[in-house]
């Protein structure tokens, strides 16, 4: 059950959902952060609408004392900053007490990526002919072949498959639409899943919702496959080939980007394919690709070591 907030905070979350198109997960996280903030203010006998920078800093210090990690602190700070900016914009406050509050510095973590041989081994292991096998193979091929987020893939509708032009329409963060290329193996896997032996055999006699009838990927009950259901299917397939500890939908996305760069793709192309707003996010993969290059050189070149011997 969602935590209740003050009316002004509820208005802020509604604005994020309607005007900014923030995802449900983001809204749930912000609601949790703002509820924690409002509880703290109540315990301190403070009115959130009358706080100054000192009180905001004191609240964030209390979170640090509780052992919050930097990413959690950064999100809590972002939620607060957004709330106060919204109140100022709506004329509810004259000034923003978070204007000079700095977010914690987060380490730039390199994304995980599988070796190409690991990805191929995972894909080729899903070779059954039952509908669930055809679905899971198509799911894996599309995730790796397009680099799309899991939410984008399970959100696909049949109309998003734009014919035989090798393109796929996906809706990313903030409901932003983009068109991504889809390779031959992924297209073939989708065709098999959508053919007579796949999706039609998992369709119910009557769909419960229109969104289920339009869904590309279905679960065994004939409803749209959820993120959790897709994650479980991928995890199960990965465990069968000994990759259960390293494979996730996001790892397949990382692997797509890293492998494209390793094979010479332009970074701007990768940015467009993955739907990154900032090129800085995509540049993380450049570093990862360089690390692979150095490792490959060190293991293969006879003069790579200090002694020149192998």
Explain what the structure shows.
The mean pLDDT is 86. β1 and β2 form a beta hairpin. The protein is mostly helical. It is 56% helix and 3% strand. Among the domains are: 83 residues, Tyrosine recombinase, N-terminal domain (DNA polymerase, domain 1, Orthogonal Bundle); 131 residues, hpI Integrase, Chain A, CATH 1.10.443.10. The chain has a two-stranded antiparallel sheet with strand order 1-2. The protein contains 14 helices and two strands; from the N terminus they run αααααααββααααααα.
Put the structure in a nutshell.
By secondary structure, the protein is mainly α.
Q: Strand share of the residues? A: under 5%
What is the oligomeric state here? Answer: single chain
How many helices does DSSP assign?
14
CATH class of the domain at 116-246: Mainly Alpha
Uncertain runs with pLDDT below 50, 5 residues or more? none
Beta strands, count: 2
What would the average pLDDT be, to the nearest integer? 86
CATH superfamily name of the domain at 116-246? Intergrase catalytic core
Fold-level CATH name of the domain at 116-246: hpI Integrase, Chain A
Shape: globular
Classify the secondary structure makeup into a structural class. mainly alpha
Defining traits:
mainly alpha, 14 helices, 2 strands, hpI Integrase, Chain A, DNA polymerase, domain 1, two-stranded antiparallel sheet, 310 residues, globular, 3% strand
């Amino acid at each position: 059950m969602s935590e209740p907030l003050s009316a002004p905070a509820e208005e802020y979350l509604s604005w994020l959902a309607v005007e900014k198109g923030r995802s449900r997960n983001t809204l749930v996280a912000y609601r949790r952060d703002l509820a924690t903030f409002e509880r703290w203010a109540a315990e301190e006998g403070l009115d959130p609408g009358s706080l100054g920078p000192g009180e905001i800093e004191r609240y964030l210090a209390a979170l640090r004392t509780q052992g919050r990690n930097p990413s959690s602190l950064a999100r809590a700070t972002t939620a607060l900053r957004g709330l106060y900016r919204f109140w100022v914009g709506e004329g509810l406050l004259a000034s923003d007490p978070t204007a000079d509050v700095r977010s914690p510095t987060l380490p730039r973590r390199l994304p995980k990526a599988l070796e190409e041989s690991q990805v191929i081994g995972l894909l080729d292991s899903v070779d059954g002919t039952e509908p669930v096998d055809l679905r899971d193979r198509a799911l894996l091929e599309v995730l790796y072949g397009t680099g799309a987020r899991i939410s984008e893939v399970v959100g696909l509708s049949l109309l998003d498959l734009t014919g035989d032009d090798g393109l796929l329409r996906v809706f990313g963060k903030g409901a932003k639409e983009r068109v991504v290329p889809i390779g031959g193996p992924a297209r073939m896997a989708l065709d098999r899943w959508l053919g007579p032996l796949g999706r039609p055999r998992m369709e119910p006699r009557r769909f419960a919702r229109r969104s289920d009838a339009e869904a590309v990927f279905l679960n065994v009950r004939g409803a749209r496959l959820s993120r959790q259901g897709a994650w479980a299917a991928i995890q199960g397939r990965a465990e069968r080939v000994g990759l259960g500890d390293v494979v996730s939908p996001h790892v397949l996305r990382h692997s797509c980007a890293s492998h494209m760069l390793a094979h010479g793709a332009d970074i701007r192309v990768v940015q467009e394919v993955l739907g990154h707003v900032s090129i800085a996010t995509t540049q993380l993969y450049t570093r990862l690709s360089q690390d692979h290059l150095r490792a490959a050189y060190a293991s293969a070149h006879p003069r790579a070591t200090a002694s020149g011997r192998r």
